[in-house]
């Protein structure tokens, strides 16, 4: 399999999750069940795909402390995305802080994934 296919597929899933997230937020509550389900499944698929890609890359190098730290940060950001997203789907009112976290965290997660992959590639040389 082409070495770029898995990261590109992961990126596509991530963009699809962001797109369905924008669609959901533009509709407001109550969320459309089908769109919400697609958003959740695509977000989960992108997180699993990112994990698989990074884990595969970890097997090619002896990871440095920086690589491990970035991978942990990426994982924590993904957990923050899932937790804040779950809180946003509750029927009860949610703090503006939770909504802000869910809006900012995708960008931070993307940066962390790219940084992790970059550091793995850099340590491969």
Compact description:
This protein is mainly α. It contains four helices and no strands. Helix 3 (65-88) packs antiparallel against helix 4.
Overview of the molecule:
With 125 residues, the protein is mainly alpha-helical. The protein has one domain. The two termini are 22 Å apart.
- Give a quick account of the main beta sheet: strands, pairing sense, barrel closure: none
Radius of gyration, CA atoms, in whole angstroms: 16 Å
Count the DSSP helices: 4
Q: Give helix % range.
A: over 70%
Shape: elongated
Low-confidence stretches are none
Structural class: mainly alpha
Please report which band the strand proportion falls in: under 5%, 5-15%, 15-25%, 25-35%, 35-45% or over 45%.
Answer: under 5%
The ordered string of helix (H) and strand (E) elements is HHHH
Average of the residue pLDDT scores: 85
Total of domains: 1
Please count the beta strands (DSSP E, at least 2 residues each): 0
Distance between the termini: 22 Å
